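This is your field. Have a critical look at both lines of this record:
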Amino acid sequence: MDDELGSDLLSDLPQSIIESILIRLPIRDAVRTSILSSKWRYKWATLTQLVFDDRCVTLSNDKSDVESSLVKFITHALFLHQGPIHKFWLSSSYLQCYPDIDQWLLFLSRTDIKELVLELGDEEWFRVPSCLFSCKRLTHLELFRCELDPPPSFKGFLCLKSLNLHQVCVAPEAIESLISGCPLLESLALSYFDSLALTIRAPNLKCLCLEGEFTDICLENTPLLVTISIAMYMTEDVAEHFEQSSSCNFIKFLGGVPHLERLVGHIYFTKYLSIGDNPGRLPVTYSHLRIIELYQVSFEDMSEILVVLRLITNSPNLNELQISGSPNTLAAMEAPDLDFWQKECPSDCRIKQLKVVKMTEMSGVPHEMEFIKFLLANSPVLESMTISPCIYVMDEKLNMLIELLRFRRASAQAEILFIQD
């Protein structure tokens, strides 16, 4: 291309289309378009979205050389940039606590930044400078391996809709204040927090993802939640706190989410929900809940089984159910209290919309089989039930299969798939 040869079709495209093309290129290639012609020299410099990663520079075995090159590239790009920056994404395994990052964030705080993602190396955590909290137009904030300490004057991100904190060191009271100070927050993800008791107040929250060592969780003002995914890790301190709890965890966590559509509970979640006083009749019906996934459910614990039954029988439009057993269930081959099922399952119970059931890590213990029997007998539109036995179960597989064939099915179309790895 050359100016003397006249305008070319690509250079004469509207600026919005050119920006759309450049945004789809790695930032390193976008900057290189400057050599195409004088018209293209600073086209990239007006991009509103900047994504930097380790591919911006030539990698080598000399880590300090890569770090230096990466810092120079990003600093040079920001120095030449013109106009607003709405999205800044930095993902690098080489950068940790470079002072230049503070300067970049200070620069961004003056450019109406709306989306900010920082994912730095894991050797040393980055302490987020106070200028971040002056980014009043932020709508999306994602931090990995950072220390976060909001200043006393900080009142919240009034425009923030999405917050993701992964391995972030922050005081418990600060995280609660941060969440409640984001009135428009719709998506919240917290992971790898240690021994945290958390109360969430977020009236517009729709999606919640939690992973870590939580001693307690209370959803106090989250009426619009539609998706929940939670994984709870257990330590001795957390287990001791669980045992001392008397309030009903089920109500604290799920008592105020009437619009829930999908619930995913990983390790120890059903255990957590089972702790505390029996709530009796639930104050909410989950009319929108269509998918339930519960992993590592202990079928030797009657209180955990009650949690599962409570969820199923209070979700009239449930379509899909996935349950995995716990390795501890192997110890429950003897089950003297099978009358539990007659006491807790009303004879007129019907799971009217359930179509798909997936049961994994099954051990064939009595309460597991009774649960499967209950589902088959009370699901009139069931289409398929897939059962995968635990790898540690050998002799019981044939007995499980024989017993399954004897169970009555409310749905004539129900297909049982017994899968052995």
Q: What stands out?
A: DSSP finds twelve helices and 15 strands in the chain.
